[in-house]
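[Discussion] Sanity-checking designs against the backbone

I'm trying to build intuition for which residues belong where. Below is a structure token string of 184 positions. I'd appreciate it if someone posts a full sequence so I can compare it with mine line by line.
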């Protein structure tokens, strides 16, 4: 019996594992889409006239009218004083619950006891301010550092030298005069 079972799993074990993994992935995506559908349905059903909403395309507007059609609900959004747009209800992202930020300073409260610590500025004496010898910095060329060719510059020089050598090698040679001897 064990031999028969082992032989079965040797032949079909990988297929069984793949089928189970595929089934688990499908169940996961089904549950995820079901949750998304439920939240979208709750949002669409709770929408009422006067709500401020945001569309997927980034427009903000106020719901003026909700109309049922054969394609679903159509929402009339007021975008400005004279601008209204009819959009499908599925084009709405969410209800806009933002507040306007003002530049007025916030009053201090007693619960906030955070202190602002000013950084200390320490001045060095004049003789310590400049080091005697500058240390070279990688990637920065100074007049005291020797010029170092980069790899790209070196490759370009090598290609130019090779090109000069090949043009010198291709100079036309003078042909030797050959005479053919005819024998009779």
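Best answer:
Here's mine. Compare freely.
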């Amino acid at each position: 019996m064990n031999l028969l079972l082992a032989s079965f799993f040797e032949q079909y074990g990988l297929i069984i594992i793949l089928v189970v993994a595929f089934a688990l992935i499908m169940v996961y995506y089904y549950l995820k889409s079901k949750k998304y559908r439920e939240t979208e349905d709750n949002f669409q059903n709770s929408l009422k006239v006067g709500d401020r909403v945001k569309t997927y395309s980034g427009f903000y507007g106020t719901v003026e009218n909700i109309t049922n059609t054969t394609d679903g609900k159509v929402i009339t959004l007021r975008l400005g004083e004279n601008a209204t747009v009819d959009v499908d209800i599925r084009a709405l992202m969410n209800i806009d619950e933002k507040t306007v930020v003002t530049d007025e300073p916030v009053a201090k409260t007693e619960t906030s006891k955070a202190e602002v610590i000013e950084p200390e500025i320490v001045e060095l004496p004049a003789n310590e301010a400049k080091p005697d010898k500058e240390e070279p910095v990688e990637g920065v060329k100074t007049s005291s550092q020797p010029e170092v060719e980069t790899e790209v510059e070196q490759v370009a020089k090598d290609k130019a030298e090779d090109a000069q050598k090949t043009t010198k090698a291709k100079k036309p040679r003078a042909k030797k005069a050959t005479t053919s001897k005819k024998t009779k």
